[in-house]
Design a protein that fits this description.
mainly alpha, 4 helices
């Protein structure tokens, strides 16, 4: 369950995206952000969830042409898996991945 702090950050995300996309009704932005937030439910590390939610919702808002299409796409995409993060121990001095 998201903490109060995380929920507060999600509200800030909704406000920022609503200002950035005035052509999209605020309830639609809220639905897109909620779908993006649901995508990260159950993840153990919660520190970056608001940032990841904002990026995912922003991508949906920018990619789709109409608000209704944005909501449908966001809900559909919320059900896709997040790729696992790379193991930092496999990074070389340049920060790039190297083969094991």
């Amino acid at each position: 369950m998201p903490s109060d702090d995380e929920q507060r950050h999600i509200e800030f995300v909704i406000e920022r995206l609503a200002r950035k996309h005035p052509e999209v009704p605020t309830p639609t932005v809220r639905a897109i952000v909620a779908a993006a937030h649901a995508h990260f439910a159950g993840r153990r590390v919660r520190d970056f969830v608001p940032l990841l939610v904002e990026r995912k919702a922003e991508a949906e808002l920018s990619r789709t042409g109409t608000p209704d299409a944005a909501v449908g796409a966001a809900i559909t995409n919320a059900n896709t898996e997040v790729p696992e993060l790379a193991d930092p121990r496999t990074r070389g001095a340049t920060g790039r991945h190297r083969r094991r």
